[in-house]
């Protein structure tokens, strides 16, 4: 698992080195995640999130990593003075775990936000459901289950665009 996470991080960092526009920020929801976004052509972008989540039901902190490919579905000019509103959707992979517990699954994303005029900052609200398996192991037991806490993944993201 560590080798896989290092490989994903290396790919994200190497593609960011050649980026035309990228953003960094934070996401607050069921925990806190650091966010990195790299814009590709036509406002499509890849996003990587790494952080800690508290939505596992056991009351302990869980390490969480998400990689997403996102599409800009449409932009709206609702508030011309404030900025441009946008709606994005995407899909990707989510992995995480804590001591004696791990999960992996497919992740989706729906985001509504605003990129402010005159400032390289955007603010958005998103839902990132995760569908996948959870595995409990160690201490003389083993259990496999559906990662049900991944469905309630709502958050607010603030990013600074370079």
Describe, in short, the structure shown.
By secondary structure, the protein is mainly beta.
What is the residue-mean pLDDT, rounded to a whole number?
Answer: 84
Number of domains: 1
CATH topology name: Porin
Strand percentage lies at: over 45%
> Stretches where pLDDT falls below 50 for ≥5 residues?
15-19
Question: Largest sheet, if any?
Answer: 8 strands, antiparallel, barrel
Secondary-structure element series:
HEEEEEEEEEE
Strand order of the largest sheet: 1-2-3-4-5-6-7-10
- Number of E-state strands: 10
**Ends apart, CA distance between termini:** 31 Å
Helix content range: under 10%
The number of helical elements comes to 1
What does it look like?
By secondary structure, the chain is mainly beta. It has one domain (22-161): Porin (Beta Barrel), CATH 2.40.160. Helix content is 9%, strand content 65%. The protein is built from one helix and ten strands. The protein has one helix spanning 2-16; strands at 22-28, 31-39, 45-53, 62-79, 83-98, 101-116, 121-127, 130-138, 141-146, 154-161. An eight-stranded antiparallel β-barrel has the order 1-2-3-4-5-6-7-10. Strand 3 (45-53) and strand 4 (62-79) form a beta hairpin. Residues 15-19 have low confidence and may be disordered.
Give the helices and strands, then pairings:
Layout: H1 2-16, E1 22-28, E2 31-39, E3 45-53, E4 62-79, E5 83-98, E6 101-116, E7 121-127, E8 130-138, E9 141-146, E10 154-161
Antiparallel strand pairs: 1-2, 1-10, 2-3, 3-4, 4-5, 5-6, 6-7, 6-8, 7-10, 8-9
């Amino acid at each position: 698992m560590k080798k896989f996470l290092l490989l994903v991080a290396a790919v994200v960092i190497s593609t960011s080195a050649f980026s035309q526009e990228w953003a960094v920020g934070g996401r607050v929801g069921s925990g806190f995640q650091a966010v990195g976004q790299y814009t590709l052509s036509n406002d499509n972008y890849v996003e990587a999130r790494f952080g800690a989540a508290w939505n596992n039901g056991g009351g302990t902190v869980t390490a969480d990593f998400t990689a997403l490919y996102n599409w800009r579905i449409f932009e709206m000019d609702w508030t011309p003075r404030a900025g441009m509103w946008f709606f994005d959707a995407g899909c990707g992979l989510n992995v995480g775990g804590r001591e004696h517990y791990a999960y992996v699954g497919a992740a989706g994303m729906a985001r509504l936000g605003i990129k402010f005029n005159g400032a390289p900052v955007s603010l958005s609200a998103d839902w990132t459901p995760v569908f996948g398996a959870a595995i409990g192991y160690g201490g003389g037991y083993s259990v496999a289950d559906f990662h049900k806490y991944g469905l309630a993944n709502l958050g607010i993201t603030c990013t600074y665009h370079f």
